Amino acid sequence: MKLVFLALIPLILSIGITPALSFDFIPESDALKSKGNSLTEIGSKKICGDKLCSKMDSKHAMKPDMKMHSGSMDMHAMMDRMDKMHEKHQQHMMQSWDSMTFDEQSQMFHKMQKMIEKMESMDMDEHMKMMSNMGYKDHDKKMHKDSDDKHETVKYPTMKHPEKMRTAASLPEASMGPQIDYSKGYLAEEIKDGLYWITDGAYQAMFLTTGEGVIVVDAPPSIGQNYLKAIAEVTDEPITHVIYSHTHNDHVGAMSMFPDDVVYIAHQEIADTLSKRNDPNRPMPTVTFEDKYTLEVGNQKLELSYYGPMHESGNIFIYAPNQKVLMLVDVIFPGWTPFKDLAMAQDVTEFLAAHDKVLEYDFDTFIGGHLTRLGTVEDVQIQKEYFQDIQDSAAKANQQVSFMTIGQEIGFSNPWLVFQIYADQITQQCTDEVVPKWIDRLGGVDLFTYDHCWKISEAQRID
Ligand SMILES: [Zn+2]
User: What pTM does this model have?
Assistant: First the structure.
């Protein structure tokens, strides 16, 4: 039976343009119910999301009205032929389906789902290209290459699970930052009165000249030795103090490049974690603190504070009161959605609460540790609003989607399957609600909102 299905794939793909494909291939509920394992309702939602259904429906609706005739080319006749061909394959498919075991059906269902999602994300050009290619393998290679070429040029290709995506929505203005000279590899700029930020376009760190030595915060390996170059460009002062924002290697993995006699400052929990890591690239802190620590060197002052694990146990707020600059890494992402799963936050509630804590500070400039630009108070408010939307949509989906209903439809023999479908429905519903509201406001919401919806909806269920 699997063979029959596999043999059908190229055929199905080759008629990918046929309008009704995405839902008609989903087995009829009666047929399934007679076997006691209906997937229809769940399937039809997952496979034919709102966006696509309306797209497909409008295509259908267009058919009789649109003037498709051109000379002797009868497009109506062509569409009818396609429908007939499609019907034939569909019948064939359903015959196979009826004689399959539940496991086979489940496998086939998920393969179909993947395939259809892939086709849903194609535009008409890609469909046409695929049809003319017919050969499935070549087509697949070609599609990926085309998608790579078109990186970041597709407006809003799909709301489906981002792991299946090879393209992204075009970026909103808010996500743009200053130009970086990539031959140089970094940009270092004074924000105010001897406080500088440095970035390579993906990571950010900061340093201060004090008149008595340089204070450095973080050392991302992606910036690496360029950090030392950037400091040497603006001062002859030696580096004397180094602060850990938190332990994650991608922000502090180049900490060992500083002189041996520097003072390393970190929260006690960071010291505890680093002692377990035993990593020569992340030297042990020489000064630690619990709640607050004020560092005064020369004419500069930094206030370090800890309010809980908003990203990781021991991640601190670093505040320069004279310049009104606040640094908190991996929590607020000015102009962008955070990285997957609330930027890998250790604790969802603490992460969400971080927004209000940040807004208690009197700052003009925010350094988030990532991506294209510095932030403002408004950026923090915007991200807070984005997560409020996700929390609202996740709560609503948690109320509306029923675990028991899904279990009764597909059976409880594999509880993980029931849970996977249940969680995916909630997450997808939340994603579908949030993404259209935010796609023009923050970069990357098409890619990571699904993960945030998952993380927050799950926290709402278990925290
Ligand atoms: Zn981190």
Answer: 0.67
